[in-house]
Amino acid sequence: MSESPEPLLSVQGLEKHFPITKGLIKRQVAAVKAVDGLSFDVVKGETLGLVGESGCGKTTTGRLITRLLEPTGGKIVFEGRDISHMSQSALRPLRRDMQMIFQDPYSSLNPRHTVGAIVGAPFRIQGVRTEHGTKKAVQDILELVGLNPEHYNRYPHEFSGGQRQRIGIARTLALKPKLIIADEPVSALDVSIQAQVVNLLEDLQNELDLTYVVIAHDLSVVRHISDRVAVMYLGKIVEIADRKDLYESPMHPYTTALLSAVPVPDVKRRSERERIRLQGDVPSPINPPAACRFHTRCWKAQEICRTVEPPLAQLDVRHQVACHFPENVPSDAVPEDAGTPVPG
Amino acid sequence: MSFLELKDLRVHFPTDDGLVRSVDGLSFRLERGKTLGIVGESGSGKSVTSLAVLGLHKGTRAKISGEIWLDGEELVSASAEHVRTLRGKKMAMIFQDPLSAMHPYYSVGAQIIEAYRIHNDVSKAVARKHAIDLLGRVGIPQPDRRVDSYPHEFSGGMRQRAMIAMALSCDPELLIADEPTTALDVTVQAQILDLMRDLQQEFDSALIIITHDLGVVAELSDDILVMYGGKCIEYGSAEDIFERPEHPYTWGLLGSMPRLDRERTERLMPIKGTPPSLINVPTGCAFHPRCAFEPRTEGKGRTVVPELLETEGGHLVRCHLSLEERRATWENEIKPKLESA
Ligand SMILES: Nc1ncnc2c1ncn2[C@@H]1O[C@H](COP(=O)(O)OP(=O)(O)OP(=O)(O)O)[C@@H](O)[C@H]1O
Ligand SMILES: Nc1ncnc2c1ncn2[C@@H]1O[C@H](COP(=O)(O)OP(=O)(O)OP(=O)(O)O)[C@@H](O)[C@H]1O
Ligand code: SF4
Ligand code: SF4
Ligand SMILES: [Mg+2]
Ligand SMILES: [Mg+2]
Question: Does the keyword Transport apply (chain B) (predicted)?
Answer without folding.
Answer: yes
